[in-house]
Each structure stands twice: as C-alpha cells, then as structure tokens.
Fold this protein.
Amino acid sequence: MRILLYVATGALGIGAGFSLITERAALTRAGYRIATVERERQELIEQNRQLEARIARLKTGAHIAERAMALGLDLVPPEDTFKEKRPEPSKRR
C-alpha cells in the first residue's frame, strides 16, 4: 500500500514537473514572438516615416513642376487658366 502511495506521489510530481516545463517553454516562445513582432512593428514605423517624408518631397511645387516639364507639359499659372474673356462694358453717356 505504501508503494502505491509513493508511486502515485511520484507520478503527480513528474506530471507537475512536465506541466511546469511545458508552461515555461510556452512563455519562452511567447516572449520570442513578442520580441519578433515588436521588431517588425519598429521596422514598419520606420518605413512609414520614410514614406511620409517621400510624399512630402513629391508634393512640393518644385518637384511637380520638374515632373510636368519632364512630361512635356506646359505650366500655365492657375489665374490664366480659368479667365473668361468678357467684353469690356461700353461706356454710356
């Protein structure tokens, strides 16, 4: 009877040990995954910062004018584009 008690206690101890090892391994894997995801997040933040800087450069008037010239487009000031030619009012006396 005592042997059965010792065997049962030992089996519970071994089971608890395996459970502890399994949990620690899961925590370690989760820690590595968190580190990987955080590193990817930082890389994406840096890529986003670089893309926003590129957008800011591409939106400048000088860059747009340069691209228009490269494409052979004439640059017309906006105020000249939509002016309507209205006849001058006749002077009545």
About this structure: The first helix runs from residue 2 to 58. The radius of gyration is 38 Å. The CA atoms of residues 51 and 57 lie 10 Å apart.
